[in-house]
């Protein structure tokens, strides 16, 4: 009985140490962020940096309030978030389906393997003019750019995960007469679950890059449009504000995927 109590005590102490470490990490992250903005503001006011190019946190905040008041920030942010979520979901689903097909058919995987490598090495931005011709100048082109940037990476990473599953698992299932569908469902998919979640995290960033690049090229609305418009009229405060909004929303999306991962891992354990 004493041994059990002692073990519980050690476990509680271990959990408390983890919580304490997390609080310290959060505190230092907050201090670094506050120090960064304070230094930026001071450097701009004292002209250590060019305030026209680098702006300042106070100017960005004032512009943020103005854009909220006239409602334009809601419209541009809503368009970009809509395009990014669609590009993220469709790019991830399409990449996972292609990876599954390649795993299912070894012949197809041998045929398309070099093409995947070549397509992954190509600069996707070069497809921009082609997308404009195919999809026009609406939101479809930005969504398509988000899909193109994320789909090949998703395919390569998930397919590599499928191939790296311990072959002994597959041999055991085959000895019991399992079909290819059962092998995929019982061994391949569960074993590559961490890889799929990691791919989701990577795709959050890739989808944002794709959509912002797409909006650079064709859009008349969205945060990417605001960034390029700010450059054109030398309003770098608008550029910085748009980048800040992108950073905040991308962080929220990443945290949501991280939360999903923790819930799924907890459910599966």
TrEMBL record:
Subcellular location: Cell membrane
Keywords carried by this UniProt record: Cell membrane, Membrane, Transmembrane, Transmembrane helix, Transport
Ranges where the ABC transmembrane type-1 domain occurs: 73-257
GO-annotated biological processes: transmembrane transport
Membrane topology of the entry: Multi-pass membrane protein
Matches recorded under SUPFAM superfamilies: MetI-like
Transmembrane intervals: 24-43, 85-104, 116-137, 143-162, 206-228, 234-257
Taxonomy, superkingdom: Bacteria
GO cellular component: plasma membrane
Family listed: Belongs to the binding-protein-dependent transport system permease family.
UniProt name for this protein: ABC transporter permease
């Amino acid at each position: 009985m004493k041994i059990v109590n002692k073990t519980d005590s050690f476990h509680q102490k271990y959990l408390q140490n983890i919580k304490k470490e997390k609080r310290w990490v959060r505190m230092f992250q907050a201090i670094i962020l506050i120090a960064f903005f304070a230094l930026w503001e001071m450097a701009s006011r004292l002209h250590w940096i060019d305030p026209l190019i680098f702006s300042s946190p106070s100017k960005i905040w004032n512009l943020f309030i103005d854009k909220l008041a006239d409602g334009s920030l809601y419209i541009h942010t809503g368009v970009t978030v809509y395009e990014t979520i669609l590009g993220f979901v469709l790019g991830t689903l399409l990449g996972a389906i292609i990876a599954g097909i390649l795993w299912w058919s070894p012949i197809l995987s041998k045929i398309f393997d070099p093409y995947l490598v070549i397509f992954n090495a190509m600069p996707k931005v070069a497809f921009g003019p082609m997308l404009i011709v195919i999809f026009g100048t609406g939101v479809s082109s930005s969504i398509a750019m988000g899909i193109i940037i994320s789909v090949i990476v998703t395919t390569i990473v998930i397919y590599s995960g499928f191939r790296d599953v311990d072959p002994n698992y597959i041999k055991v299932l085959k000895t019991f007469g399992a079909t290819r569908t059962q092998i995929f469902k019982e061994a391949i998919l569960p074993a590559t679950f961490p890889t799929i979640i990691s791919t989701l995290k990577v795709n959050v960033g890739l989808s944002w890059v794709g959509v912002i690049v797409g909006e650079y090229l064709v859009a008349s609305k969205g945060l990417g449009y605001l960034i390029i418009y700010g450059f054109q009229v030398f309003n770098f405060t608008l550029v910085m504000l748009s980048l800040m909004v992108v950073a905040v929303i991308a962080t929220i999306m990443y945290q949501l995927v991280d939360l999903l991962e923790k819930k799924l891992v907890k459910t599966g354990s």
